[in-house]
Design a protein that fits this description.
Blueprint (H helix, E strand, L loop, with lengths): L6 E5 H18 L2 E2 L1 E2 L9 H7 L3 E3 L2 H11 L3 E4 L10 H4 L2 E4 L2 H12 L2 H4 L4 E5 L36 E5 L8 H19 L6 E3 L13 H15 L3 E4 L10 E13 L2 E6 L3 H4 L2 H4 L6 E3 L11 E5 L8 E6 L9 E5 L19 E5 L5 E5 L3 H6 L3
Parallel strand pairs: 1-17, 2-10, 3-4, 4-5, 5-6, 6-7, 7-8, 8-9, 9-10, 12-14
Antiparallel strand pairs: 1-11, 11-12, 11-16, 13-16, 14-15, 17-18
Helix pairs in contact: 1-2, 7-8
């Protein structure tokens, strides 16, 4: 039975298939791969992820708590900044990465005197800015001019690096391994001397690697990881994809609520929202794939519709689509590849109905694990 709309549907069999690809990459390279919770943090899917991945990447205290509760001891925490009250991170994390030297210096005495550090249960790293932009969307480019993310090479001149044993960079966004190759060249140019220091034992290559896409060049990735391991004498290389483990594992089911003419546009209003339920559609921006009656949109034709969300935001527009037949009120449109960066970023904007969450198990059985009502909306600010 299809879920009532609006609803996210997450397919565990697809997640398993993606994770098997990642397991093969781990076996071929010796690298470690973890799930970035900033992209996907659904506990109902964690048992499948745990079977194949090495742990989680957390961007803040609450993600670190979630990772430790459901995944165990391997939690790599990397945030732009940590509050003075975030001391629990030192109990929850196996690695803590600092965004700047100044922030590391602020925390260093506490970090080096922490019992878990003295017992070798936790290590510390520094985020680097490779100064190599390989993407086309500024909002997702940590290497853009004036970036607040990562340390520049000029900051490392005569720097005291006591206590640091790893480095981290994250500059890719859903990209192939050729972008990683360019980034590693820039990294060596700017930070090669640092990475070759005996105290640097691990390198975290961040996320944004489209590891499970069909066109991804795994052979080049394997070469790059092995080269980095040998070149810098590393004990560990980490990858922290957010999308790759859950690629094509999620769908957002919606229904058409209204159809009307606005000038030359035929507008269809849905019971989902770009801004509230799939914000990357506006932030990237991009037009998500979808199906009607199991068929994708056409490249052209007579049945063209501008699909709009159900909030009051004038720009709550999903995109224009051509369909194989006229739309009708009540039609179900299923947006594809909606597992990552959707549920973790949703809002209750306008108090519209929030999508429920359904899990499809590996035998094809659906189970609605979470629904939302007025009390959820009200309690958010109570």
């Amino acid at each position: 039975m299809r879920p009532s709309t609006p609803a996210y549907l997450i397919d565990l069999a697809v997640i398993r298939k993606n994770c098997e690809v990642l397991s093969e990459l781990k076996a071929k390279t010796g690298c470690r791969i973890i799930q970035a919770l900033k992209a996907f943090a659904l506990p109902g899917a964690f048992p499948v992820l745990r079977d194949h991945l090495d742990g989680c990447c957390a961007s803040g205290l609450w993600e670190a708590r979630l990772a430790r509760e459901f995944f165990g001891e391997t939690v790599l925490t990397c945030g732009p900044v940590y509050r003075d009250t975030d001391t629990d991170l030192f109990e929850l994390s196996s690695h803590i990465i600092f965004n700047s030297l100044s922030h590391w210096y602020r925390w260093r005495d506490y970090a080096l005197n922490h019992p878990r550090y003295q017992q070798d249960y936790i290590s510390y790293g520094l985020r680097l800015n490779p100064q190599c932009s390989t993407g086309s969307t500024p909002i997702y480019d940590p290497c853009r001019h004036g970036s607040r993310l990562g340390t520049l090479p000029s900051s490392l001149q005569n720097a005291d690096l006591e206590g640091l044993s790893g480095c981290h960079f994250h500059s890719l966004c859903d990209q192939n391994s050729d972008a990683l190759a360019m980034t590693l060249e820039a990294l060596d140019l700017h930070f090669g001397d640092l990475l070759r220091l005996p105290q640097i034992r691990w390198l975290n290559m961040g996320g944004g690697h489209a590891l499970t896409r069909v066109q991804y060049d795994q052979k080049l990735l394997i070469e790059l990881i092995k080269q980095s391991q040998d070149h810098y004498n590393l004990e560990e290389v980490w990858l922290e994809p957010g999308e790759a483990p859950v690629l094509n594992a999620g769908a957002l089911h919606s229904s058409v609520l209204d159809i009307f003419q606005s000038g030359n546009e035929t507008v269809a209003i849905l019971d989902v929202s770009a801004t509230a339920h799939m914000p990357d559609v506006l932030e990237m921006p991009y037009r998500p794939d979808l199906t009607l009656d199991g068929s994708p949109p056409l490249d052209g034709g007579v049945h063209r519709y501008l699909l709009g969300g159900s909030t009051c935001l004038a720009g709550d527009i999903i995109g224009s689509y051509y369909f194989h037949r006229p739309l009708r009120v009540g039609d179900r449109l299923i947006f594809e590849d909606m597992a990552q960066y959707t549920m973790v970023k949703t809002t209750y904007f306008n108090g519209i109905q929030h999508p429920s969450i359904t899990l499809r198990d590996e035998n094809g059985k659906d189970d609605m694990i979470r629904s939302f009502d007025y009390e959820d909306f009200k309690q958010r600010l109570m």
